[in-house]
Amino acid sequence: MENQEVIEGIVEEIIYRNDNNGYCVCVVALEDDDVTCVGTMVGVSEGEQLRAVGTYVKHHTYGHQFQIESYQSFIPKDRHAVLRYLSSGAIKGIGPGLAKRIVKKFGDDAFRIIEEEPETLATVKGISEKKAQEVAMVFYEQREMRKNIIFLQEYGISLTYAIKIHNRYKERTMDVISNNPYKLAEDIFGIGFKMADDIALNMGVDKFSIHRIKAGLMFILNRATTEGHVYVPRDELIEKAEAMLDAAYELLDQALLEMQIEKSVISKIVDEEVITYSMTYYHVELNVARKLYDLSGYDYDLPEDTEKEIEAIEKDSDIYFDAYQREAIKEGLTNGVLIVTGGPGTGKTTTINSMIDLLEKQGLDVLLAAPTGRAAKRMTEATGRQAQTIHRLLEISFMKEDDRNNRFEKNEDNPLECDVLIVDEVSMVDVVLMNSLLKAVIPGTRLILVGDKDQLPSVGPGNVLKDMIESDRIKVVKLEKVFRQARESAIVMNAHLINKGEHVDLTNRKSDFFYIKRATTGGILDEIKTLIKTRLPKFAKCSAYEGIQVLAPMRKGILGIENLNKELQATLNPPHKDKNEREFRSMIFREGDKVMQIKNNYNLAWQIKNSYQYTIDEGLGVFNGDIGKIIEINAYSNKVKVQFEDNKVVQYEYAGLEELELAYAVTIHKSQGSEYPVVVIPLLTGPSMLLIRNLLYTAVTRAKKYVVIVGLDSTIYQMIDNDKEIERYTTLKLRIQEIFDTMAEVQVIE
Ligand SMILES: Nc1ncnc2c1ncn2[C@@H]1O[C@H](COP(=O)(O)OP(=O)(O)OP(=O)(O)O)[C@@H](O)[C@H]1O
């Protein structure tokens, strides 16, 4: 890097330190001057000797600083520095008074005594033997950490990852990594195969080592799950591995065999094709199928007066159920598992509300849940009863960054206490979450799953709702009649036409579904900017911050959300001398920006303050899809404050910015389960795998008041005509059929 320099000096003062991410601001005394150093420095203490590589930068508030790229710190040798170091509180249990006495007694030998002869240390007045042992331990741990971090940096591992790695393996760090650097990809969140592979090759690991080949194969299987698949056909797996690892078939075959013996993967034959799963996902599917079978085994009698009760509800609400709704209500009262599916406005909520009334009348406890915070909020509003996110319902107990698998308090040993569980927006539930949910539901509890099977499948692996419905073994009621269309909107009507593959009217005759023809990316961008900045706020009486949402099919490209966000940020919230900014990866966050939380974080604290800045409410948890506004970027504390809906304010560390994205535009995938008053959709061209019917259907059904499509009618029609779905390799349907059919046979034999 240009302008890099090396500095060496004693750490005079620690001004700020964040123990979570290692960020530190300190003053270092160089030979001729003091300099403020900033950057990630772990375990650096006052009095230490620091040797750092970095660049001098000018901070607009704090002036000249040295930005550290990498560093080494040494325990000081001379008496004076030893005293400073011990007095600084670097070793818990030793303060300035004790430090003086230790240095007085042992001089330059103090550190050796602390580490090697704690019993001698205990001869200093005020230090018990127990305390001496503790001090020796802390000292040892700090030395280990320093050693590990230097070791890791030598292999080009950034400090942020070095800290994570040290925290995971502690004193085993060097052993684990020297033995098999690919463990990093398994154990450390954020380290994938590629990074582990770079480290390994850097360390001289043989390109054809079996560890490398196995890690590569596992990486391909795991990457497939991030694309929604549960397995990969074996031939495809081998083909990808050959290209990625540059390894011959025989070696890959041997590695797969070993992995099968070690039970990390499993292969099965389905439709004469060999398919390979990572063992975890194979069991996840199997467990979901088994649990659905167990729960379905319970039937309940329809209470005698049900018909009368339904009639009473109809009279009260002046809504007369159609045959499907009536069937759904009754099936809800009699089945162990029921799926209710239907498009927008088909009366799902109305049906569920009546079902809940009748179930509660029988004295049954009903719990309500949905996969996202937004969906749970909508369910709460629609039913007038408290609904929770599935994660919250299952009482997430472990959500550390280094832990990839969520742990839930609620499981087979500690199941949910309810008689009936109703889950909405099930199309968004992936197979892993469904497995966690079903673990916590004991047979005898009724499960009612509600969703629209034609929405896009979950972001995570599996195609759970569709597979369950298509298995034809679980009771399903499809609500077909659209109740909303006549009275209310063209949005609902068009959504149903799109779903049926019929072309919609684009002549703007209806006042809530608009099409603006633009044939170029530039034309679309310009149109969207004016729409969002001036026309729509006037027309729909809401703003791009609250109400209007741009939804795009893609992330990349001129009309992908990354570029749209840059363009819309420049239009709606351009740079200003009074607005602080922070660059993170390739994004600039600026005060005033609209942002979205992109993962569930149950540990993030929020506060609500009144106008006098008194905290009136506080709690934990910010959820995937929550949208807010940056209200402050503080370069001194390295924090970004975001205000979410309901005035909840959350402070993010700079490192936590990886959980945020600009949100002027979001992908249609990400918008699942959310509704917005106004939806603007740019549609021009794109890969044919994305220009599909259910993507358009999902986008249109997100709008409550207005839909505006900007682009080409031919693309809209192309999408409507394209009923291909993105193929997902899943076998849940098959597993459900297998278990239901096998058990049915067993019963016949018995
Ligand atoms: N049997 C019925 N007769 C008349 N109106 C009905 C009937 N069922 C539902 N409705 C009305 O139709 C509208 C849509 O119903 P509801 O909200 O239950 O549908 P939904 O499937 O949950 O919709 P969405 O998925 O869009 O939220 C509501 O205004 C509701 O009052």
TrEMBL record:
The kind of enzyme this is, by top-level EC class, is isomerase
Any idea which UniProt keywords this protein has?
ATP-binding, DNA-binding, Helicase, Hydrolase, Isomerase, Nucleotide-binding
Write out the catalysed reaction: ATP + H2O = ADP + phosphate + H(+)
Family in the record: Belongs to the RecD family. RecD2 subfamily.
Q: Where does ATP bind?
A: 345-349
Its function?
DNA-dependent ATPase and ATP-dependent 5'-3' DNA helicase. Has no activity on blunt DNA or DNA with 3'-overhangs, requires at least 10 bases of 5'-ssDNA for helicase activity.
Q: Which residues form the AAA+ ATPase domain?
A: 334-481
Against CDD domains, the record matches this protein to: DEXSc_RecD-like, SF1_C_RecD
Q: Which GO terms describe its cellular component?
A: exodeoxyribonuclease V complex
The superkingdom of the source organism is: Bacteria
What is one process in the GO biological process aspect for this record? DNA recombination
Q: What name does UniProt use for this protein?
A: ATP-dependent RecD2 DNA helicase
SUPFAM superfamilies cross-referenced by the UniProt entry: P-loop containing nucleoside triphosphate hydrolases, RuvA domain 2-like
GO molecular function list: 5'-3' DNA helicase activity; ATP binding; DNA binding; hydrolase activity; single-stranded DNA helicase activity
Q: What is its EC number?
A: 5.6.2.3
Signal sequence bounds: none
